């Protein structure tokens, strides 16, 4: 392959010669051949340089590839270790999370069961309360039925009044439906102390007008019902005053029993004229609590009367008790004299025993002495004779 610069030079030279002859053609051919060889050598040199350069670059690439493989292997190893640690840490955390989650689920389950148990208990209590409310509603309906009927309403007030009086007083201190000399029968008569006439208690209360006043839908209807209630109360108070207040047979005051504290309070708050009329007629309007208090006062009075009636018996018993105490005092004094004499005798005996004890102690302190062996003769010792013993008092009183 001809070098482009040589080709350009030959072309320009041929153009200048203009084809002058065969010699020139030959020369030109030689020159072309020389230049071709030179070009071929240069091309081979360049190829060898390119090949050496390619080999050098290939070696560098191999070296770089080897280094890259080593780095990749190191990175793979590092990544493997990191991945193993990460997997271990993740497994550990998952185990801990699983354990905590299991504990939390167990606690939540236990708490849920406990809450369900408490809820069941509360539902049971609510069921019982609902049952009680239903029974109470039935009782209220029954009470409404009782209060809607005049006769049954009177029986209800009579029953409550009888319960209060029977619980507070003894059986002989009251009487229900007792007939008076005029032929009327009050609901209850209570025996008074000191021979006083009995106290009359009436348990009939006009409730129709009161219920109409409570159920009124308009102010005009409520006003009409209030007027009717006032008239009914005045009529009933007049009947009690005329029928039950009998001079010499009953007390000059009677009780009108109202079987509700709320009605009693409303009467004193809204119907002051009725209360004043009852006071003038000597009729006292009482609620269950006031009736109970009055009965307790009467109970105390009756108890005081019984105590006064039994005073002479108590005095006699006290006198006999004093006699017994006097006899007991005399006998105790005699017994004290006997004890005093016995004490003196015991003191004398103790004196004698002390003397005997001291003398026995002195006897025990005596010592027996014998004659010394040196003062005795050898013949006496040989014959076995010794001097008689001699007493010596060591300590004398």
UniProtKB/TrEMBL annotation:
It holds the Pfam family RmuC. The keyword Coiled coil applies. InterPro entries: DNA_recombination_RmuC. It comes from the Bacteria. The keyword rRNA-binding does not apply. The chain crosses the membrane at residues 20-38. GO terms for biological process: DNA recombination. Keywords: Coiled coil, DNA recombination, Membrane, Transmembrane, Transmembrane helix. Involved in DNA recombination. Belongs to the RmuC family. This is DNA recombination protein RmuC homolog. It comes from Shinella sumterensis.
């Amino acid at each position: 392959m001809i070098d482009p610069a040589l080709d350009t030079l030959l072309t320009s030279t041929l153009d200048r010669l203009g084809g002058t002859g065969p010699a020139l053609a030959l020369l030109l051919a030689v020159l072309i051949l020389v230049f071709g060889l030179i070009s071929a050598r240069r091309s081979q040199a360049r190829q060898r340089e390119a090949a050496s350069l390619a080999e050098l670059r290939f070696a560098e690439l191999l070296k770089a590839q080897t280094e890259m493989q080593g780095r990749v292997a190191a990175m793979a190893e590092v990544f493997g270790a990191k991945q193993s640690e990460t997997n271990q840490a993740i497994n550990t955390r998952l185990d801990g999370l699983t354990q905590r989650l299991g504990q939390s689920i167990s606690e939540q389950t236990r708490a849920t069961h406990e809450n369900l148990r408490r809820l069941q208990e509360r539902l049971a209590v609510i069921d019982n309360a609902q049952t009680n409310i239903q029974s109470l509603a039935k009782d209220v309906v029954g009470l409404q039925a009782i209060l809607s009927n005049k006769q049954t309403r009177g029986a209800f007030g009579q029953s409550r009044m009888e319960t209060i009086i029977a619980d507070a007083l003894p059986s002989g201190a009251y009487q229900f439906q007792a007939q008076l000399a005029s032929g009327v029968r009050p609901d209850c008569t209570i025996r008074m102390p000191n021979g006083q006439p009995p106290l009359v208690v009436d348990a009939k209360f006009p409730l129709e007008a009161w219920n109409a006043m409570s159920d009124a839908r308009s102010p005009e209807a409520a006003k009409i019902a209030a007027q009717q209630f006032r008239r009914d109360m005045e009529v009933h108070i007049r009947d009690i005053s005329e029928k039950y207040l009998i001079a010499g047979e009953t007390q000059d005051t009677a009780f009108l029993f109202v079987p509700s504290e709320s009605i009693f309070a409303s009467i004193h708050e809204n119907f002051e004229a009725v209360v004043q009329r009852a006071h003038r007629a000597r009729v006292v309007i009482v609620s269950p609590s006031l009736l109970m208090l009055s009965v307790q006062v009467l109970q105390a009075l009756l108890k005081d009367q019984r105590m006064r009636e039994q005073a002479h018996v108590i005095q006699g018993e006290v006198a006999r008790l004093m006699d017994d105490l006097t006899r007991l005092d005399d006998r105790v004094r005699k017994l004290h004299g006997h004890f005093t004499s016995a004490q003196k005798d015991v003191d004398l005996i103790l004196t004698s025993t002390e003397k005997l004890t001291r003398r026995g102690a002195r006897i025990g302190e005596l010592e027996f002495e014998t004659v010394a062996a040196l003062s005795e003769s050898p013949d006496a010792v040989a014959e076995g004779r010794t001097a008689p013993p001699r007493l010596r008092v060591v300590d004398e009183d």
